[in-house]
Amino acid sequence: MKNYKPIYHKSAKGILHGGDYNPDQWLRYPEIINEDFDLMQKANCQTFTIGMFSWSQLEPEEGVYHLEWLDSIIKRIGDMEGSVILATPSGARPAWLSRKYPEVLRTDAHRQKQLHGLRHNHCFTSPVYREKTQEFNRLLANRYKDNPTVIMWHISNEYSGECHCDLCQEAFRSWLQKKYQTLEELNHAWWTNFWSHQYSDWSEIESPSPIGEHMVHGMNIDWKRFVTDQTISFYENETVPFRELTPDIPITTNFMSRNPEMLPFHALDYDKFAKHVDVISWDSYPCWHHPAFTMDELASRVSFENDYFRSLKNGQSFMIMEMTPSLVNWVPYNKMKKKNVHELSALQNVADGSDSILYFQWRQSRGSSEKFHGAVVDHTGTDQTRVFQEVAALGGRLNNLSEVPGARTNTEVAIVYDVENDWLIEDAQALANETKKYPETVMAHYEAFWKRNIPTDVISLNHDLKQYKLIVAPMLYKITEEHAKKLETFVEHGGTLVTTYFSGRVNENDLTYLGGFPGPLRSLLGIWAEEIDTLYPTEESVFKYKDVPFKVHDYIETIHPETADVLAMYEEERTPVITKNQYGTGAAFYLSGRTDRTFHEHFYKEVVKDLQIKSDLPELVMNDGHFIRIRHRKNERTVFYFLQNFSNERKSGYLTMPLTDAETDEEIVGEICFKPFETRILKVNME
Ligand code: GLA
Ligand code: ZN
User: Fold this and answer.
1) Which positions are catalytic?
2) Which atom of ligand 1 is found nearest the CA of 329?
3) Which of 7, 72, 158, 536 is 20 to 30 A distant from 46 in Cα terms?
4) Rounded to whole angstroms, how far apart are CA atoms 360 and 367?
């Protein structure tokens, strides 16, 4: 039985709408704070994240606390029946703390100790910082534990980065000792006989550095794993008072993506981190109208990220903790969103599984680096701006969707993105640095499903695979014996796997498989991959698949079928391009070259048809050349369909079965039209 409960505390309702609110910057301007409370209601905003960067206002001197202003803000939000996501302040520390306890300052990979300043830059190991942050969090937990306005704890902000100080070196060595037990084991796993890199004492090990060791790949990956574990342990230390005093208030921390290309964030392993949070939340900043992408391409990347974050907790809805209501101020070109694109982008997140639309930021700051970052309220301080009115209108629509939170998406297809694989491919001195593009390749395969309205999950192979009919795992460079077995079992029992060139090369220590690639996937795929050719950007190769010509770029692997059937050969007949191996009651495909969008659309269309994979809303027939993106979310009573026009043109089609408009309850059948960038939300009630 699926759980459709909303993810936030029971005192909140509907889709949360609001965002980061920094009254701590305006304590000298009470009239501005009064204005905020007037405007919040007009903007249909009810949920505010506060306290994130307030430490120096809350504890201006060590042990001197000023929490009255926070009490008053929380009370005022409560009085308007709003909710507070209360953040812990560890993301930015007061100057007195750095001055008095310099160990909290981070040391970079060049072994240079940083001065006080900026934010997100503390040592994760420092016992003092751990003690200070936990102490502060205990104060918050005690003070607000019975306050129903506080619906969630937001731990710190966008954890990232690494510290190379002496404390961290010691912690890294202990982590390694625990993992390997003996230096002999470590030396073998890291292949340290290469270039005479053997360690003879634990104290000789130093974290990777541009001025020292950074080419022992086994060490590099262990360091990244350590950084994730150390960050999680810092986070866990922050959560202790909340777990103890407020067990009913869920805990989150905001995850990220890599901007502006919208690639998965890979400084931390979120797959691991996800187990430690109650709710996944993330900060989404797509650069709409970026000339490198069409709207569909970028939207597909956004959905990829949403699917990834939703899949981290097996389909449980997630939260958009930050998005901009208008523009950001930190990309090379800080472009505004065109009319209706804010609404489109926000509702795409809801369609993909978000139960909130929260902004950075409610009001533009008056000074410092983010004063020109977009906000619901700008420096004019009025509800008359375009941005304010778009936000208020969206809030009105979200108010009609109070049944959506908790609703889930059924998926039969999983796309594999593995962050460790990303690390290792990036580190590998092979292929071409410019065109390795592991995450881009995964996203390129994903796009074919997005364009067909096939609901997808984005997972690592640590996830349960049973629910899927199809798994697409491009460039599976790293594969553990255990994951290979899992894939074998999946295919043996009827599943279909698609993988590509540059798979099955190394194990979890980045040690290559001996005896023929793709290593432990060889019998499942029924091929031997002998060598791989890197093409110059000016080169390409062609092949025909069922009489249609396609192109290959960047990489061509020479493969030899063993038990697999060859479905296509390159024109020069040098090696197969596509093979299919029947295995148990399922099948495994191998694509030996880097194929493109046209091929993916063609190929996956067939695969999806053969496997009878369901697409969303088959009752909608679009007019020729018209595309509408559709996603469903479903609970015990209702299926909601989000239909979105990502183009700047009118689109139309017709519905062959009557559906209900989820916002007006009107019945819709026959012709259905979409204005530029319009979203319509339909529903079916189940008996
Ligand atoms: C991040 C941070 C916010 C703010 C925004 C600006 O997501 O969490 O505090 O700096 O970026 O886009
Ligand atoms: Zn440190």
Assistant:
1) 158, 322
2) 12
3) 158
4) 16
Per residue in 451-503, pLDDT (tens digit) is 999 999 999 999 999 999 999 999 999 999 999 999 999 999 999 999 999 99
The CATH homologous superfamily to which domain 46-252 belongs is Glycosidases (3.20.20.80)
Domain layout of the chain by residue ranges:
46-252, 413-610, 620-685
Options 3.40.50.880, 2.50.20.10, 3.40.50.300, 3.40.50.150; CATH of 413-610: 3.40.50.880
- Smallest CA-to-CA distance from 74 within 55, 42, 49, 45 is with 49
User: For 643-654, how does the pLDDT look when each residue is reduced to its tens digit (9 = 90+)?
Assistant: 999 999 999 999
Band the pLDDT of 79: cuts 50, 70, 90: very high
Angle between helices 30-42 and 386-399 (to 10 degrees): 50
Of the options 2.60.40.1180, 2.30.38.10, 1.10.8.50, 3.30.70.60, the CATH number for the domain spanning 620-685? 2.60.40.1180
At 388, the pLDDT band (50, 70, 90 cuts) reads very high
| Nearest-atom index, ligand 1, CA of 256 | 7
CA triple 71-75-79, angle to 5 deg? 175
Structure confidence by residue, pLDDT tens digits, 579-609: 999 999 999 999 999 999 999 999 999 999 9
Instruction: Tell me the one-letter amino acid at 236.
Output: E
